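job 3f2a | input accepted
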Amino acid sequence: MSSTRSRQISFSRSTSTQQPQSNPHKHFLQRTEQNCPENLTESQRNRWFKIAKKAKQNAQLIQQLPAFHWPPSHSHQPIFIHHLTPHSTIQSVLEAVRDVTVYVIDTESDPPTQFRPEALPALIQIEAIHSETSTTVLLIEAQFLPFPLSPTHHLIQQLCQHIFSPHHYIVGWGNVRQELSHFLPFGLFAIHQLQQHINLQAYFTDTWNHTHPHLTSCPTQQHQFQIDIDSDSDSDSDVDLICMVNTSDFDDFRSTRINTQTTCTCTDDLRPYKKETEQWALQKAIKSTFNEALNKLHTMNTWACGLDPLLTTNNTSESIATRTDMTSYAINDVSAPTRLLFHLNHEIIRPLRTSSLSTIISSIAPQSPVPHLPEQQLPEPSPPEQAPIPLHSPEPQSTDSSPDQEPAPELPSYFILADSHGRHIEQTIITPHCKITSHFVSGLKWFDSQRPDLNAFSLIQSSPISTYLHSSQAIMLIIGTNSLRFVDAAQAVQHGIFSVFLGFCGLP
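job 3f2a | predicted structure (508 res):
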């Protein structure tokens, strides 16, 4: 579908009488054997009853459990993005998410009809995670986007291209690329931008199965135990090398699952899904984790209706209430994975936890001080974005020094070199026990043959960094490892150690 065509749909829908349903599950709840259409095939009949069963389960769940809760204080009112959104609003959003590196997404589409065999892409929900207690929710109404060549479209495109940057983590409940591929015709972003996409559904499934093993009486557990014994029979436990490897596609290293015909006999609360390959529904994940009900009432509603009151006129009180409910639904559907992301303590959000680095570092035992080295002039910062390396300030000399007075020992120094994960670390942290200097480079990689300015191995040996290494007790490197996906891990570790050694020694 072209962007021009999407705009035509916008006008027709915004002026039509088609409205979303206040209770789209109502007719599903009324399905019985008696009123099932006779002309359905076996597969159509099964699907017909499956939808009815899900609607009934949803109705029971929301009656039995408290509603899913995402504290309102964690995020402000959602920001609607469409052809009527003021430029100042879009620019403010772009500025607000400038430093955000983790985004959770979801999408909504109108179901197919007899006149339109394919689903109609309608809404992109994006939650920008500033911290554990602060997020920004964007609702992009795809069927109400501006003309492709308009200034408003350019601003929205600029916002989306920033969000879906290759350097950012894009999290979704399912395959992120597949989820967003339906929105490519609107020209807001390109699929190749999505380099660090995370399937939280698969991650949750693997984590649950790992932390909730089958009962010993379960045939599946007995079968798995036999496989484990066989696989470990030739292992050599004399030396273990443990490496932590991050990757831009977290699905590449998912745990290997055992595909077996053995029937699981575990209880439903332990193993709701009996097959290892089955993926968790978001609603069930919220129920099992938080004992709360994520209402899925509006899953199959009319989403290309214009949720923002600015997009519609002559609304009845019922249609306004329905759109308000759908907006809450859309927010919950993207906030639920966000809450799970923090609950699982996924590695990408650990830097966003509300903890103080200085408190952690101050607990490090002080070591022998290192002599202070002479200063070196640093080059001007250049793209990509870098935090300037702070210069050492000479200590003020006392005018009334006494020959018997001993100078105070200098604090030991530590140096942090990080990619964009370190942008929120203060450049200089001074505690009673040590002094910490941090420097971040947006887009920094362990290895980049094309961009020496983004190559950690090269930067470590550069004059500015080596100066700090030479005068530091230790160095901490906080750098993602996507650039090492196709490099031998042992060689990468050796190269890294050698580079740090050269930096510490000040060798060329």
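job 3f2a | The chain has 14 helices and ten strands.
job 3f2a | closed
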